[in-house]
Amino acid sequence: MNWIFLGIVLVAFVAAAWRQLAFVAAEGLQSPMQSLSSAMISSAAGAVELAIGLVGVMTLFLGLMKVAEASGLLTVIARLIRPLMTRLFPEVPADHPAMGAMILNLSANALGLGNAATPFGIRAMQELDRLNPRPGTATNSMALFLAINTSSVTLLPTGVIALRAAAGSADPAGILPTTLFASICGTIAAVLAALWLARFFPAGAPEAAAPDIDRPWAREDAPREALPADPGGYPLWVSALAIGGLVALIPLTIAWGKAMSPWIVPGLMTGFLLFGAVRGVRIYEVFVDGAKEGFQVALRIIPYLVAILVAVGMFRASGALDAMVSALGAFTSKVGLPPEALPMALLRSLSGSGAYGVMASIINDPAIGPDSYTGYLVSTLQGSSETTFYVLAVYFGAVQVRRVRHTLAAALIADLVAVIAAVAICSWLFA
Fold first, then answer.
1. Residue 334 DSSP one-character state
2. Handedness of CA 12, 18, 20, 26 (dihedral sign)
């Protein structure tokens, strides 16, 4: 992200400087450099205003997520996907802690519980590394797990819905059907790519430096932090029925997505609170606890929003964006990808905060807005995939894996498929 941030600023500065050299002063007309300065100040102020507007909505959704977590909804999802996971990962014993940690990680990701998903993911990688005969080299299970992790099925993209609501969207949850479709397509592609590419990237002999890798988590006497009790899995037919029902939602959301979307946010709040009340959760207290976290999350993203929105504001004010749109518009528009959305599609795999800021700048642009085709598309792109390079760096770094084999290729294929699926479904529903 350091080089991306610097690159955007440098391109904007050079473009503005080039225009400044040819600028002819006229009364009431700002010079390119003055426009660049004004854009920097206004973008920084707008980023803070956006984050403050986001506080209330983020607080609401994280409060609801806390109720869902406390009521056992995460456990229900984990039990549903366990039979499928045992078949996808035959190298991992069904009762091994790695299996439980992977299931909890993917279940938390599906609900948009990013803060809860990351610790489970790191624990899963450490447990998988206990089974690794070649320290420092990714196993097939590691590669498949991370490929799925970067493209996992998203049932509730809470952060994106919150940002769309803060941007004044009349239908902030309208991206649920498009996000579900794109993330399912990406996940299927991740699984197929990881299984297919594994044969072309053999693990090979252990690294020469493998004995020198310090792996305290893999020692026999290493203490293990207790995971939540493994609830086991539902019968296979129950899981198959649930997964089939999820897939069946795709044509339903395509056909009636616009009619269903106004019901989604009120239905989610009512459903989560009722589910929690039936399960004996003190829903008010739990909601407030989650809401406190939402307040802190909204405040923590202010520096990231300021950085990327200032860079994007400079890029636009310098004229560089107009030049890029003119150069690429004729090509990308033909396939349903507006040039304004192209930076978002490229940045999503590189930086979550950067892509989040680009999405924010697009849907808050009065000329575009959150409820335009481009607004729906960038929101779907944000919600339907993960930050691939960040996930691989964090999770492989946690177990000191240096040879990632086919993991990156499988994850990038899944990202590409998710972009194509997002363009296809948004074109169908909103173009």
1. G
2. negative
